[in-house]
Amino acid sequence: MSDLTRFRADDTEAEAIERVELIRPHKPARYTLAFDQSLSDTGVVFLIGSRIAHTENIRIEKKAEFQGKDFLERAVELKDAVRVLVMDYRPDVVVIESPPMGRSGHLKSSESSLMAATAIRLAISDTPLMVVSAKRAKKRLTGNGNAKKPLVRKAVLDMLVRLGMDKPKPFNEAVADALAVGWTACEDEVRDV
Predict the structure, then answer these.
(1) Model confidence over 141-176: pLDDT tens digits?
(2) Please, are residues 43 and 175 in contact by the beta-carbon 8 Å criterion?
(3) Kind and range of the H or E element at 53?
(4) Is 193 helix (H, G, I), strand (E, B) or coil?
(5) Which of 4-13, 15-24, 35-44, 107-116 has the highest mean pLDDT?
(6) Helical H segments across 47-172, by residue range
(7) Among 42, 80, 173, 176, fewest CB within 10 Å belongs to which?
(8) Would you call 44 exposed, middle or buried from its count of C-beta atoms within 10 A (0-12, 13-18, 19+)?
(9) Whether 137 contacts 181, CB under 8 Å
(10) For the chain, which domains are there?
Protein backbone atom coordinates (compact mmCIF):
# COMPACT_ATOMS: atom_id res chain seq x y z
CA MET A 1 0.00 0.00 0.00
CA SER A 2 1.10 3.55 -0.65
CA ASP A 3 2.17 5.62 2.33
CA LEU A 4 -0.23 8.53 1.86
CA THR A 5 -1.51 10.91 4.50
CA ARG A 6 -5.11 10.54 5.49
CA PHE A 7 -7.67 12.06 3.13
CA ARG A 8 -10.02 14.33 5.06
CA ALA A 9 -13.67 14.36 4.11
CA ASP A 10 -13.85 18.17 4.37
CA ASP A 11 -10.92 18.71 1.97
CA THR A 12 -11.52 20.23 -1.38
CA GLU A 13 -10.24 18.17 -4.29
CA ALA A 14 -7.30 20.57 -4.73
CA GLU A 15 -6.34 20.30 -1.03
CA ALA A 16 -6.45 16.51 -1.21
CA ILE A 17 -4.26 16.46 -4.31
CA GLU A 18 -1.81 18.90 -2.70
CA ARG A 19 -1.56 16.72 0.42
CA VAL A 20 -0.91 13.62 -1.69
CA GLU A 21 1.68 15.43 -3.82
CA LEU A 22 3.57 16.47 -0.66
CA ILE A 23 4.07 12.79 0.08
CA ARG A 24 4.79 11.71 -3.52
CA PRO A 25 5.85 14.85 -5.41
CA HIS A 26 7.37 12.80 -8.25
CA LYS A 27 4.09 11.12 -9.06
CA PRO A 28 0.63 12.35 -8.12
CA ALA A 29 -1.68 9.72 -6.68
CA ARG A 30 -3.80 7.83 -9.12
CA TYR A 31 -7.55 8.42 -9.04
CA THR A 32 -9.26 5.02 -9.00
CA LEU A 33 -12.99 4.40 -9.28
CA ALA A 34 -13.68 0.80 -8.20
CA PHE A 35 -16.91 -1.15 -8.50
CA ASP A 36 -18.38 -4.36 -7.13
CA GLN A 37 -20.94 -4.46 -9.90
CA SER A 38 -24.44 -5.83 -9.78
CA LEU A 39 -27.71 -4.85 -11.39
CA SER A 40 -29.35 -4.44 -7.98
CA ASP A 41 -26.67 -3.13 -5.56
CA THR A 42 -23.34 -1.92 -6.96
CA GLY A 43 -20.64 -0.96 -4.46
CA VAL A 44 -18.64 2.13 -5.46
CA VAL A 45 -15.33 3.37 -4.04
CA PHE A 46 -13.32 6.39 -5.19
CA LEU A 47 -9.68 6.18 -4.12
CA ILE A 48 -6.95 8.80 -4.25
CA GLY A 49 -3.87 6.62 -4.11
CA SER A 50 -4.95 3.96 -1.62
CA ARG A 51 -7.02 6.37 0.49
CA ILE A 52 -10.80 6.36 0.43
CA ALA A 53 -12.29 9.62 -0.78
CA HIS A 54 -15.88 8.44 -1.34
CA THR A 55 -18.07 5.35 -1.05
CA GLU A 56 -21.63 4.74 -2.14
CA ASN A 57 -24.07 2.15 -3.40
CA ILE A 58 -25.99 2.34 -6.65
CA ARG A 59 -29.25 0.58 -5.88
CA ILE A 60 -31.57 -0.18 -8.76
CA GLU A 61 -35.07 -1.54 -8.27
CA LYS A 62 -36.54 -4.28 -10.40
CA LYS A 63 -37.99 -2.73 -13.56
CA ALA A 64 -40.00 -5.44 -15.32
CA GLU A 65 -41.50 -8.87 -14.76
CA PHE A 66 -39.68 -10.44 -17.70
CA GLN A 67 -36.09 -11.10 -16.56
CA GLY A 68 -34.43 -10.22 -19.89
CA LYS A 69 -36.17 -6.85 -20.15
CA ASP A 70 -35.56 -6.16 -16.45
CA PHE A 71 -31.82 -6.84 -16.82
CA LEU A 72 -31.58 -4.54 -19.84
CA GLU A 73 -33.45 -1.67 -18.18
CA ARG A 74 -31.40 -1.94 -14.99
CA ALA A 75 -28.16 -2.14 -17.02
CA VAL A 76 -29.06 1.12 -18.77
CA GLU A 77 -29.78 2.80 -15.42
CA LEU A 78 -26.45 1.53 -14.02
CA LYS A 79 -24.61 2.79 -17.11
CA ASP A 80 -26.13 6.25 -16.64
CA ALA A 81 -25.20 6.34 -12.93
CA VAL A 82 -21.62 5.26 -13.67
CA ARG A 83 -21.29 7.86 -16.42
CA VAL A 84 -22.18 10.59 -13.88
CA LEU A 85 -19.55 9.26 -11.43
CA VAL A 86 -16.89 9.20 -14.16
CA MET A 87 -17.71 12.78 -15.15
CA ASP A 88 -17.68 13.92 -11.50
CA TYR A 89 -14.47 12.16 -10.39
CA ARG A 90 -12.50 11.91 -13.66
CA PRO A 91 -10.63 8.77 -12.59
CA ASP A 92 -7.33 7.70 -14.11
CA VAL A 93 -8.59 4.11 -14.08
CA VAL A 94 -11.84 2.24 -13.45
CA VAL A 95 -11.61 -1.14 -11.71
CA ILE A 96 -14.28 -3.84 -11.75
CA GLU A 97 -14.47 -7.30 -10.32
CA SER A 98 -14.33 -9.87 -13.08
CA PRO A 99 -17.64 -11.66 -13.63
CA PRO A 100 -17.58 -15.16 -12.07
CA MET A 101 -16.21 -17.79 -14.44
CA GLY A 102 -16.31 -21.56 -14.28
CA ARG A 103 -13.26 -23.81 -14.69
CA SER A 104 -13.71 -23.96 -18.45
CA GLY A 105 -13.74 -20.16 -18.76
CA HIS A 106 -17.48 -19.99 -19.35
CA LEU A 107 -19.76 -17.72 -17.34
CA LYS A 108 -20.80 -19.33 -14.11
CA SER A 109 -24.45 -18.34 -13.70
CA SER A 110 -24.25 -14.63 -13.34
CA GLU A 111 -25.65 -13.03 -16.45
CA SER A 112 -26.56 -10.05 -14.29
CA SER A 113 -22.93 -9.54 -13.23
CA LEU A 114 -21.80 -9.69 -16.84
CA MET A 115 -24.49 -7.20 -17.89
CA ALA A 116 -23.45 -4.89 -15.04
CA ALA A 117 -19.79 -5.13 -16.13
CA THR A 118 -20.81 -4.37 -19.71
CA ALA A 119 -22.86 -1.36 -18.58
CA ILE A 120 -19.86 0.01 -16.68
CA ARG A 121 -17.58 -0.52 -19.68
CA LEU A 122 -20.00 1.36 -21.92
CA ALA A 123 -20.27 4.22 -19.40
CA ILE A 124 -16.55 4.90 -19.00
CA SER A 125 -15.81 5.41 -22.73
CA ASP A 126 -12.03 5.89 -23.05
CA THR A 127 -11.09 5.69 -19.34
CA PRO A 128 -8.75 2.70 -18.85
CA LEU A 129 -10.42 -0.37 -17.35
CA MET A 130 -8.75 -2.89 -15.02
CA VAL A 131 -10.46 -6.18 -14.23
CA VAL A 132 -9.52 -7.85 -10.95
CA SER A 133 -10.68 -11.35 -10.10
CA ALA A 134 -12.50 -11.79 -6.80
CA LYS A 135 -10.18 -14.71 -6.07
CA ARG A 136 -7.08 -12.51 -6.43
CA ALA A 137 -8.54 -9.73 -4.27
CA LYS A 138 -9.60 -12.26 -1.59
CA LYS A 139 -6.15 -13.87 -1.62
CA ARG A 140 -4.46 -10.49 -1.32
CA LEU A 141 -6.57 -9.42 1.66
CA THR A 142 -7.17 -12.69 3.51
CA GLY A 143 -4.51 -15.06 2.22
CA ASN A 144 -7.30 -17.34 0.96
CA GLY A 145 -8.62 -16.93 -2.59
CA ASN A 146 -11.78 -18.84 -1.63
CA ALA A 147 -12.60 -16.72 1.44
CA LYS A 148 -16.28 -16.12 2.15
CA LYS A 149 -17.76 -12.61 2.21
CA PRO A 150 -17.72 -12.19 6.05
CA LEU A 151 -13.98 -12.91 6.11
CA VAL A 152 -13.36 -10.42 3.27
CA ARG A 153 -15.38 -7.77 5.11
CA LYS A 154 -13.34 -8.40 8.30
CA ALA A 155 -10.07 -8.21 6.33
CA VAL A 156 -11.14 -4.88 4.80
CA LEU A 157 -11.98 -3.53 8.27
CA ASP A 158 -8.58 -4.74 9.55
CA MET A 159 -6.85 -3.00 6.62
CA LEU A 160 -8.68 0.24 7.45
CA VAL A 161 -7.36 0.03 11.02
CA ARG A 162 -3.79 -0.65 9.77
CA LEU A 163 -4.02 2.35 7.45
CA GLY A 164 -5.39 4.54 10.26
CA MET A 165 -8.62 5.16 8.39
CA ASP A 166 -12.17 5.32 9.71
CA LYS A 167 -14.81 2.96 8.41
CA PRO A 168 -16.42 4.71 5.42
CA LYS A 169 -20.13 5.42 5.20
CA PRO A 170 -21.82 3.61 3.69
CA PHE A 171 -19.97 0.38 4.44
CA ASN A 172 -21.54 -2.93 3.45
CA GLU A 173 -20.66 -6.09 1.51
CA ALA A 174 -20.72 -4.37 -1.88
CA VAL A 175 -18.51 -1.48 -0.70
CA ALA A 176 -16.11 -3.91 1.03
CA ASP A 177 -15.78 -5.89 -2.21
CA ALA A 178 -15.22 -2.69 -4.23
CA LEU A 179 -12.48 -1.69 -1.76
CA ALA A 180 -10.89 -5.13 -2.10
CA VAL A 181 -10.66 -4.91 -5.91
CA GLY A 182 -9.66 -1.22 -5.78
CA TRP A 183 -6.83 -1.83 -3.32
CA THR A 184 -5.66 -4.84 -5.31
CA ALA A 185 -5.48 -2.64 -8.42
CA CYS A 186 -3.57 0.03 -6.44
CA GLU A 187 -1.07 -2.58 -5.30
CA ASP A 188 -0.60 -3.77 -8.88
CA GLU A 189 0.08 -0.17 -10.00
CA VAL A 190 2.63 0.37 -7.21
CA ARG A 191 4.35 -2.92 -8.02
CA ASP A 192 4.56 -2.01 -11.73
CA VAL A 193 6.44 1.27 -11.07
Answers:
(1) 899 999 998 999 999 999 898 888 899 999 999 999
(2) yes
(3) strand 51-59
(4) coil
(5) 35-44
(6) 67-89, 111-123, 134-142, 149-162
(7) 80
(8) buried
(9) yes
(10) 13-192 (3.30.420.10)
Q: How many residues belong to the chain?
A: 193
Q: Any residues with CB less than 8 A from the CB of 5 and at least 6 apart, and which?
A: 19, 20, 22, 23
CA atoms within 13 A on the CB side of 84: 7
The C-alpha angle 98, 102, 106, rounded to 5 degrees, equals 80
Provide the whole-model pTM: 0.78
For the stretch 86-130, pLDDT in tens is 999 999 999 998 877 655 554 444 677 788 888 898 888 889 999
In the prediction, which pLDDT does 13 show? 55
In 3D, which of 51, 32, 61, 16 has the Cα closest to residue 124? 32
Identity of the residue numbered 185: A
